[in-house]
Amino acid sequence: MLTIDGSHGEGGGQILRTAVSLSVLTKTPVEISNIRANRPNPGIKPQHYTAIKLIKDLCDAQTAGLEIGSSKVTFLPGEIKGGEYRFDIGTAGSIVLVCQTCILSLVNTSERVKIIITGGTDVKWSPSWDYFERVFLPIINNMGLNVMSKLIRRGYYPKGGGEAELTVVPSEKLKPIEYIESIKFSKVQGIVHQAQLPDHVGTRIKHAAIKQLMKNNLKADISLEKVDTPSPGTGITLWAQNDNIILGETGLGERGIPAERIGEDTANRLLNEIRSGATIDSHALDQIIPYMALAISTGSSSCLVRQISSHAETNMWLVSQFFRNKEIFKVEKVNNLYKVNTKKTVQ
């Protein structure tokens, strides 16, 4: 059994979710201890519980310690079963993080799997639904996966109530990515969404983002979506795409922060990614690291990133534990960017 220290590096819920997904993929029993040990409220939270319980049901796994608040979980994977599954996180816990856990677990599925999840679609400390659908999914589908998504309704903190569908269809072997040439962008697309707030809030977010992008010679096509949800909320997701290269950024409304600042700050963060010459944004890198490693059997992957986050470093470490290879990833500085490569040495 492989033992993973859940407090290593970034030490968040990502270690737990990714470890369980890789356990299913590699058919490796795993024990994860010290789960979120350095967090203010350590242990398994509802969204982590839902993700692992879903994976358990998907593959008839045996588990020990799988309960909210637990600091240690043992997971013995079985075989993936196709079909339709429905899960309710029960709070505004992130639907996106649950979806990402499921997708990684299902990379080698031989049967169609459909999952309907209720919870939060646009919440703190996780990718927004629009980032997941417009940035993350296109990247992994370009690698050869066949994943479809559908937003049924949004859900904000604290009541959640959002709902989304995820469908994973059997696919061929993963293909590596080779994004090693910086791309120029002329246009940015985006979505601003809001619920139970005055109309001007979303409009101000949108116009502030457009103004900032236009000042930097980028056309902006940003839609405004007004929705009905149990809790008030607002947010913005922006993305720039040229062929297969997609860079994205998100911003979430918070009480006391002016709408203009949300729009302007989100635009500026995306502009930083665009100006840097990155071919994968810093958020996406840590999310696609396992896929880059899994694609190694068909070739090496390469991409350029503006910075290596603690999440990315932790995920590189975690992936190496499962493949028993400490040299899967090579990171080198190239001018003001980091070039991330995978090696073909994984057995």
Describe this structure in words.
The longest helix has 18 residues. This protein is α/β, with parallel strands linked by helices and 347 residues long. Strands 1-2-4-3 form a 4-stranded mixed β-sheet, covered by helices on one side. The model has no long low-confidence stretch (mean pLDDT 95). It folds into 2 domains: 171 residues, RNA 3'-terminal phosphate cyclase domain (UDP-n-acetylglucosamine1-carboxyvinyl-transferase, Chain), CATH 3.65.10; 94 residues, 2-Layer Sandwich (Dihydrodipicolinate Reductase, domain 2), CATH 3.30.360.20. Helix 1 runs parallel beside helix 2, helix 1 runs parallel beside helix 3 and helix 1 packs parallel to helix 8. The protein is built from 8 helices and 16 strands.
Average of per-residue pLDDT values: 95
Strand portion: 25-35%
Count of alpha/pi helices:
8
CATH homologous superfamily grouping of the largest domain: RNA 3'-terminal phosphate cyclase domain
Spatially, the strands of the biggest sheet line up as 1-2-4-3
- Spell out the helices and strands N to C: EHEHEEEHEHEEEEHEEEHHEHEE
How far from one another are the termini? Answer: 19 Å
CATH topology of the largest domain: UDP-n-acetylglucosamine1-carboxyvinyl-transferase, Chain
Anisotropy-based shape: globular
Main sheet, how many strands, which sense, barrel? 4 strands, mixed
Share in helix: 25-40%
Q: Helix/strand/pairing class, anyone?
A: alpha/beta
Kindly give the count of domains.
2
Radius of gyration: 20 Å
Can you name the CATH architecture of the largest domain? Alpha-beta prism
- Counted beta strands: 16
